[in-house]
Design a protein that fits this description.
single chain, seven-stranded mixed β-sheet, 39% helix, binds pyridoxal-5'-phosphate, Cystathionine beta-lyase, lyase
């Protein structure tokens, strides 16, 4: 019998026979014990699917990876500590000095910032293209196009891109195609089936679904690319915790239900929002006048619950203050959780190819899972506050 001190430190193996659970076990690990020195010495031979160190995966993270791989109809998924981290990892792993990366003008602003500061610093040629015009992409391709990035629909202004066409043009010139699918999720769009080589999801949003985990995924259609990305993430020292992966696995169980509700309520709120005289335009791919609507109808299964509102020039300056009237909607970044959110987003500074013609501030709205009538009433209160402010301003 070992001493108490040793018994405190050592965990006994208990019988698992006869036990099963519908939940996914949280396997926390840095060290993974080996049965003998030979097994330890040859641990690299276990391959990228084996277990050798906590950073390189646990059964919990592999379970999440496998579920995402199935949804994306891909070969392999890697997890990253955020959606942004997944995107930058793809770019760092694929781009060499002298290569060109082509980004849509509507790319997620932190990705634009990363490209302009860090990729440029590393000698990568960074160019932006019109997300709605594949011919513009071709015109901007130089001698060494290596990666064409797609984000569909685009951040805030919701341009749906013609991924099959863009992928064909990029592949003709030897470039790899990556697609940020955070808005749609694989339930509404499958980028790998539409020509992309790599798809990234911000799991922080709809997958997690509860606004309390940061995570991203990278899914590839090709095993060799998957192995290269896993090795690169290992060298960077980037991985995710089993606890966080388990929370995303829990959120994923209800994602289809949540998305269906989010989209249905978004559609009904949009009807009411568009009827307001203070609204110039609603940007949401299901609407016939939303950019890329025909491509959306051709390629997507459905919509999620995020849309953007462009106000008239008279109303726009009063929107920020009128948001104080909201009682249920929360002001904040991100989306895809249980709570409905609004975020005033400046657009003009993030466009370099095609100037943004609406008011600089666009209000992004993410519908949560609250009662539809309560949300409609909350928005009515906001529009009343907006009209009151406009009237006071006109009278002053
Ligand atoms: C939020 C978001 C990301 C980044 O996800 P994080 O997990 O918040 O880093 C990437 N792309 C799009 C389109 C997003 O909306």
């Amino acid at each position: 019998m070992s001493s108490d001190w040793t018994q405190c430190a050592i965990t006994p193996a208990v019988n698992h026979e006869g036990f099963a659970s519908l939940g996914v076990a949280v396997y926390r690990a840095s060290t993974i014990p080996f049965e003998n020195a030979q097994a330890y010495a040859t641990r690299r031979e276990r391959g990228s699917e084996g277990y050798s160190y906590g950073l390189y995966g646990t059964p919990t993270t592999r379970t999440l990876e496998r579920k995402i791989t199935a949804l994306e109809q891909g070969r392999r998924t890697l997890l990253a500590p955020s959606g942004q981290g997944a995107i930058t990892a793809v770019m760092l792993a694929t781009l060499h000095a002298g290569d060109q990366v082509l980004l849509p003008d509507t790319v997620y602003p932190p990705v634009r910032d990363f490209a302009d500061r860090d990729l440029v610093r590393l000698g990568v040629q960074v160019d932006y293209y019109d997300p709605l015009d594949p011919a513009d992409l071709v015109r901007r391709m130089g001698a060494r196009p290596r990666l064409v990035w797609v984000e569909s629909p685009g951040s805030t202004t919701m341009e749906v891109q013609d991924l099959p066409r863009i992928a064909a043009l990029a592949h003709e010139r030897g470039a790899v195609v990556g697609c940020d699918n955070t808005w749609a999720t694989p339930l509404n769009f499958k980028p790998l089936a539409h020509g992309a080589d790599i798809v990234v999801e911000g799991l922080t949003k709809y997958f997690c679904g509860h606004s309390d985990v940061m995570m991203g995924s990278i899914t590839v259609a090709d095993n060799a690319l998957g192995d290269a990305l896993r090795a690169f993430l290992g060298r960077l020292g980037v991985g995710v915790s089993a606890d966080d992966a388990a929370l995303v696995l829990r959120g994923l169980e209800t994602m289809a239900l949540r998305l269906a509700y989010n989209a249905r309520v978004a559609a009904s709120l949009i009807d009411a929002v568009r009827a307001q005289p203070e609204v110039a335009r609603v940007l949401y791919p299901t609407l016939a006048d939303s950019p890329g609507h025909a491509v959306f109808r051709r390629d997507f299964q459905g919509a999620s619950g995020v849309f953007s509102v462009v106000f008239t020039p008279q109303a726009a300056p009063h929107v920020a203050a009128a948001l104080d009237a909201l009682r249920i909607f929360v002001i904040g970044a991100s989306w895809g959780g249980t709570r409905s959110l609004v975020a005033p987003m400046p657009v003009r500074a993030h466009r370099t190819v095609r100037a943004w013609e609406g008011d600089d501030m666009v209000l992004r709205i993410s519908v949560g899972i609250e009662d539809e009538a309560d949300l409609a009433k909350d928005l009515q209160g906001f529009f009343q506050a907006l009209r009151d402010r406009m009237a006071r301003h006109a009278g002053a």
